[in-house]
Batch of 2 targets.
Target 1
Amino acid sequence: MKEVIAIIRMNKMHETKEALIKAGFPGFNAVKVAGRGRQAMEAEVVDALNKHPEDASEVLPLLAHVPRLIPKRLVSLVVPDELVKEVVNTIIKVNQTRNAGDGKIFVVPVLDSIRIRTREKGNFAIDEMGSGMFFA
């Protein structure tokens, strides 16, 4: 099993939710988060400075002291190993604009899962249709 964690733009949440459900992944979590990527400043500022480099000496010192956190959504779902590629591709298809700030996807191993209600374990605990191995 793997956990797929995606950090996406706030305005892409509804479309991402619909795409995941349509692809057969109705169970996931989403929370509001704020963070920063690698870029030291906003893309609009970089574009403006590229057009008017003579302003850089005035603008850059002001921006260095204002690290702004950008509101995003964190989407998390646990899936069997063989479904990771489909989940990742679904998220990329919806969220890729090819602009800075599109987000990141992390895939991390999950050692086990246990459904509290039934004590089902492993893939059975994450599969809504599953029934099987139980935790003693």
Note: Helices lie at 13-22, 43-51, 56-63, 84-95, 123-126.
Target 2
Amino acid sequence: MARAFKYGSVKIANETIEAIAKQACNEINGVIESKTKSNKEAKKDTKVSIVNGFVIIDLNLVISADVNVRKTIKNVQENVKRQVETMTGLSVKRVNVEVNSLVI
């Protein structure tokens, strides 16, 4: 995503936004890991899209079985949105979360 400012422009790679989102996920109690598949596979588990100037983030998580899943996902969504908006200045429209598995 590129933005123009008075003294030049700034470009933020989708991979940078992915890294911020993954770090924000890992800050939440109960999240075991935010998954990314190997480079051999075409689809990454964490995906960032820019639609009409808004950021949409898709996450796949492994969560601990001893936490409230709904509250944990809500906390993940709020933290990812807050961190990405704070660190990049971009507007996050959606944070979609898929729970791949629960770990006991």
Note: Helices lie at 14-26, 69-88.
